[in-house]
Design goal:
alpha/beta; Rossmann fold; Arc Repressor Mutant, subunit A; 14 strands
């Protein structure tokens, strides 16, 4: 299979290891964590790998403190969530006053992994989130392919659209039937798939727990738990609302998105770009794709949306260096300014508002509003 370089992700790991003795690289299964770790380790003089899905490596770590304390250089532990004992051992090792070892911890998102990282290793480990390929890695010319297939390497690099669609369907089934139970979550696969499919149909809309609960025939708490599970596994994003100090009533519930556009299309049973183009969720799919690209490459956790009950809204608000920037996603041939855009710019005090569309030309609408092509986001926006 073709290998795509991921220099931005490698730079983030390198920067984090410059600050912390250990870095946790977390993200969904099959997003390329293992391949990326080997790319990162390629130029290191001494590297030791452990893959806890391999029986031989689990045996090597039966006495973890003895084994790990003797190692030098870069130590990579893949699927670390499979052995929770290691977090306590690492806490001891990372507290040594002098150490010649750095640790790269790889794990699929799970309650145990996130809990142990934030509690047991607090202040000792940096966290780098990894998703699938992004626009800078897939190159702008392939942006529609990336949107259609999503960023999971095996889906994006599949030999044809049919092979990509088959991989994504198998991924969904494996995630529900194998990965979720391995995380210690006892929910029937069919129930969680039904909920996930509902999220796909509500993609880009405001979360309503009561509505989901009625459709599931369950309590609101159950619907919220299902949402938390899919969020924790990096499958769903709940984009938080921004609250501005104004007199207008503002939306206070999050908007929900299936994070990977390829999985969204699989859940909606859209197996070709022609099918996507004719579906009512076309615009919402494009919006979710652009938002994920922006949040991933801007490397920010401050993203939110803004909306009032009077109709004013902004798809994405980002804070950088004390300034506010806005993004609107428009699946149209030639976007123009709207009243909602002007309201957002003035009410939120935006430094600039970018309108992202599927065309090929960039142009300015006003001094603070510009239109940019989706395929050229790294060039026009993300480099600022």
């Amino acid at each position: 299979m073709q290998v795509i370089e991921r220099p931005t992700a490698i730079a983030r790991i390198d920067a984090a290891l410059g600050v912390h003795p250990a870095v946790a690289l977390v993200g969904p299964r099959q997003c390329g964590k293992t391949t990326l770790s080997r790319m990162f380790a390629a130029n290191r003089a001494k590297v030791t790998f452990f893959d806890l899905e391999r029986e031989v490596d689990r045996r090597r770590l039966e006495s973890p403190e003895q084994t790990l304390s003797a190692l030098r250089g870069l130590v990579v532990i893949d699927e670390i969530q499979r052995d929770p004992r290691l977090f306590e051992v690492l806490r001891v090792l990372l507290d040594r006053p002098v150490s010649d070892a750095k640790y790269l911890l790889l794990g699929s998102a799970s309650p145990d992994l996130l809990k142990n990282t934030s509690e047991t290793l607090a202040g000792r480990v940096g966290v780098v989130d990894l998703a699938g390929f992004d626009l800078s890695e897939a190159h702008g010319a392939d942006w529609r392919k990336l949107w259609e297939r999503g960023g999971f390497p095996r889906s994006f690099l599949a030999k044809d659209p049919a092979a990509s669609a088959l991989w994504r369907e198998n991924f969904i089934r494996t995630f529900l039937e194998r990965d979720v139970p391995q995380l210690g979550i006892g929910i029937p696969a069919e129930s969680l798939r039904r909920f996930w499919t509902m999220v796909a149909h509500y993609h880009g809309q405001v979360w309503n727990a009561a509505e989901f609960a009625r459709a599931l025939g369950a309590a609101e708490g159950t619907a919220r738990r299902y949402l938390d599970i899919l969020q924790g596994a990096y499958m769903v994003r709940a984009l938080t609302p921004w609250q501005e100090n104004i007199r207008k009533r503002q939306v206070k519930s999050p908007k929900i998105y299936v994070r990977d556009s390829g999985l969204l299309h699989a859940l909606l049973e859209l197996d070709s770009f022609h099918a996507i183009a004719g579906h009512p969720k076309l615009g919402a799919s494009f919006e979710g794709f652009v938002i994920e690209q922006l949040l991933g490459q801007l490397d920010t956790r401050s993203g939110s949306f803004w909306a009032t009950h009077g109709g004013a809204e902004l798809d994405l608000l980002v804070h950088r260096s004390g300034r506010r920037y806005g993004f609107e996603c428009k699946y149209s041939d030639a976007p123009r300014t709207t009243r909602a855009m002007h309201i957002a710019v003035e009410t939120l005090g935006l430094e600039h508002l970018w309108v992202v569309y599927p065309g090929s030309e960039s142009y300015r609408l006003t001094e603070r509003i510009s239109v940019v092509p989706a395929g050229r986001l790294p060039e026009h926006v993300l480099s600022r």
